[in-house]
Amino acid sequence: HGLVAHLPTYLGFPSVFDPFLEVSVLADPTEGMELFRLLRQAKGPLWLIATSRNAMRFCALMVGEDRLQSEIQVHKNLKFAAIGDASADALHSYGASEVFLPSNSQAQTLAEELVAQYPISHVLLPGGNLAMANLPDILTSAGWTVLSAAVYTIEKVAIEPVSAQGVRNGEFSAVLLRS
After folding, report:
1. 157 CB contacts (<8 Å, ≥6 apart)?
2. Contact 139/115 with Cβ under 8 angstroms?
3. Gap between the Cα atoms of 60 and 39, Å rounded
4. Would you say residue 20 has pLDDT above 90?
5. For 116-139, what is each residue's pLDDT tens digit?
6. Please, which residues bridge with residue 80 across strands?
7. Taking the complete model, does pTM exceed 0.85, yes or no?
């Protein structure tokens, strides 16, 4: 993201960088901790799905990086899936070996391809408080059991960014939104 964020400046365009959102670990770790309780107790096939790099990063912050790596390595029936390369890299960094990737980086495609290619399973799905419901909805409607847990929050920054007024006044030729 760093290179993309600074590309306009590098190309000679005057740029302003202002965060409009704040991403932080969830204050109440109950849901995230429940994921790992179920991971330890699961006897059958189980999937850990990473929908973003943030999902895994904040999961590790919540339960501890060493604990996350340990849980991933000891569970022999645990399979991994990711929306795209960045979330797959995050799973690999915590010890996942093989990670299923969909034919395109869309939650709907991931869900549909898992349903088409694998038997009904249980899914652990860490994510953010604003996560879209299509992935768990598709899996659940196909008979899969999904435990979704918010491990991070995305909220508006408390103080309006300086550039917001400039956007309202039409002072910018372009706006680049990063995720």
Report:
1. 19, 20, 21, 22
2. yes
3. 14
4. no
5. 999 999 999 998 888 888 999 999
6. 48, 99
7. no
